[in-house]
Amino acid sequence: MKATVHVTLKNGVLDPQGKAIEHALGALGFAGVDQVRQGKFLELELTETDREKARAQVTDMCEKLLANTVIENYTVEIEG
Amino acid sequence: MKATVHVTLKNGVLDPQGKAIEHALGALGFAGVDQVRQGKFLELELTETDREKARAQVTDMCEKLLANTVIENYTVEIEG
């Protein structure tokens, strides 16, 4: 079973990496970019076959390791 | 108009960050994790209002800056 996790910075948290990309795009001549936010994207291959158990397991992983819940939000999707 | 970009390592390209997460999950007692791959996730706010033009612009950004196409794949989604 495959799980995908998106970890994004919470609104209001400064995103220096996103700002750097925004400026680099401007320097390359791309106009019309208002904001860039960068996040992390994780693909996990799990042996768990039960959808709900897999979701609970991955949520637990996010809380304990994958996301810093003080400044980051996460979403979990289970596929297949 | 909002665009989301996923940048992932191509298959066969070593992902040390993913490996580190995999090991850390194992050390925390999470069993049954076969593989972890980490990628980047970007959210862009564009002033462009035409869907196809926005997609072309973001694809161009990926080719020029956002992804290293030698080792990375990217997908572009346009929303709203």
Automatic annotation (TrEMBL), chains A, B:
Keywords: ATP-binding, Cytoplasm, Ligase, Nucleotide-binding, Purine biosynthesis. One of its GO terms (cellular component) is cytoplasm. It catalyses: N(2)-formyl-N(1)-(5-phospho-beta-D-ribosyl)glycinamide + L-glutamine + ATP + H2O = 2-formamido-N(1)-(5-O-phospho-beta-D-ribosyl)acetamidine + L-glutamate + ADP + phosphate + H(+). One of its GO terms (molecular function) is ATP binding. It is an enzyme of class 6 (ligase). Pathway: Purine metabolism; IMP biosynthesis via de novo pathway; 5-amino-1-(5-phospho-D-ribosyl)imidazole from N(2)-formyl-N(1)-(5-phospho-D-ribosyl)glycinamide: step 1/2. InterPro entries: PurS (IPR003850), PurS-like_sf (IPR036604). It is found in: Cytoplasm. Its EC number is 6.3.5.3. One of its GO terms (biological process) is 'de novo' IMP biosynthetic process. Part of the phosphoribosylformylglycinamidine synthase complex involved in the purines biosynthetic pathway. Catalyzes the ATP-dependent conversion of formylglycinamide ribonucleotide (FGAR) and glutamine to yield formylglycinamidine ribonucleotide (FGAM) and glutamate. The FGAM synthase complex is composed of three subunits. PurQ produces an ammonia molecule by converting glutamine to glutamate. PurL transfers the ammonia molecule to FGAR to form FGAM in an ATP-dependent manner. NCBIfam families: phosphoribosylformylglycinamidine synthase subunit PurS, PRK05974.1. PANTHER family: PHOSPHORIBOSYLFORMYLGLYCINAMIDINE SYNTHASE SUBUNIT PURS (PTHR34696). Belongs to the PurS family. Part of the FGAM synthase complex composed of 1 PurL, 1 PurQ and 2 PurS subunits. This is Phosphoribosylformylglycinamidine synthase subunit PurS.
